[in-house]
């Protein structure tokens, strides 16, 4: 860990002491946004009972947060270029903390949903620019290790959410789940204001029409996926999907003409970036699909209780936490595309082994298969994220960060929706796991296609002379 905060002559990024504070602010902000999803899921029955609403309506406490967060990722990433990433990150944290207080004090579902939407907007502001801040905080030579730390934080948050939620609910009521964000948020706010890199926002306008198109495109897409996942009438899903496709077409046309596009076309002219995005989206389809499919497999097919099912999931995020930092460090020294491809092979083998899991299998037989998936994903994600961030031109790193976060969210949501569609068609749950294998196989094809080009580009970027690197951000006084 100390290697992450070492400083060498000619390093870009922040000096070691300020790097520690800035990273701690990033970790706390990310943890709050990630833990919130799985933590609040545990409380949905209690929220429905206390607010006297149906379970179907209570589900929107989680859904609205995720939809708003996903819909505004690209918008927030682009807006940060105008006001600076530091100001957007601090504003996002402040909004998240304020909304958490409002959610804790809410005594009706309507007000709770309002504050959950505001929480989602605050989370979008922080998550959309997180990867680009890692690139700004850390020197290029340590970027893989830094993104490995990011993978550890995200996986740890997802793993800890249910446990934290269950622990709080065992001694207090559900509003305390939201109140828990207040002390962490205030500390993170102070750290972010104190240590985040100071930079000037660019001059020029903001693509308001593009922002509106992006929100409608992504929001309607996630509503379509949510409709499929919950078994609503097919025409509703098709209507939302049609709106998403039409708006997406108009949005892309707008991006070619806009002076400050949310999604710069030049970014996707870089083949390494384009291939890394494709591999990332498909891998997250596989993971999102597996997370839902395994719940049905363990409980309905194999007869495990919900508690046992939660424990059977644990090896996946734990393996990412253990393997992710190692994979990130190795990606700084070797071709990251090779590491990512190896991870996809292991993830694909893990999903195949779960699809072949017999109904009378024991707990240990299930655990090693889930752990294999986690090891594979842990080997894939940090090197692939490093490839995405370093292949993008530095002046477009904020846009690349928004694309990275959006790709992850879209992939996971599509995976969840596919499970809902297959279950609605009464297909065996094992079929969905084989679909996850297919998604990983396609991701592997994209990953292998970039090995040669990324190897040549890595030699150029690692050997970058200090004179070619932008001057480090100003130190905070």
Which helices and strands occur, and which strands form pairs?
Elements: H1 16-51, H2 55-58, H3 60-71, H4 73-83, H5 85-105, H6 109-137, H7 143-171, H8 175-179, H9 181-195, H10 208-229, H11 234-257, H12 271-301, H13 306-313, H14 315-331, H15 336-355, H16 363-391, H17 397-424, H18 429-449, H19 451-462
Keywords: Membrane, Transmembrane, Transmembrane helix, Transport
Membrane topology: Multi-pass membrane protein
GO molecular function: transmembrane transporter activity
How does this structure look, described?
The longest helix is centred in the first third of the chain and has 36 residues, at 16-51. With 477 residues, the chain is mainly alpha-helical. It folds into 3 domains: 16-196, Growth Hormone, Chain: A, CATH 1.20.1250; 207-259; 263-462, MFS general substrate transporter like domains (Growth Hormone, Chain: A). α1 (16-51) runs parallel beside α7 (143-171) and α12 runs parallel beside α17 (397-424). The chain has helices at residues 16-51, 55-58, 60-71, 73-83, 85-105, 109-137, 143-171, 175-179, 181-195, 208-229, 234-257, 271-301, 306-313, 315-331, 336-355, 363-391, 397-424, 429-449, 451-462. The chain starts with 15 loop residues before the first helix and ends in a 15-residue tail after the last helix. It has 19 helices and no strands.
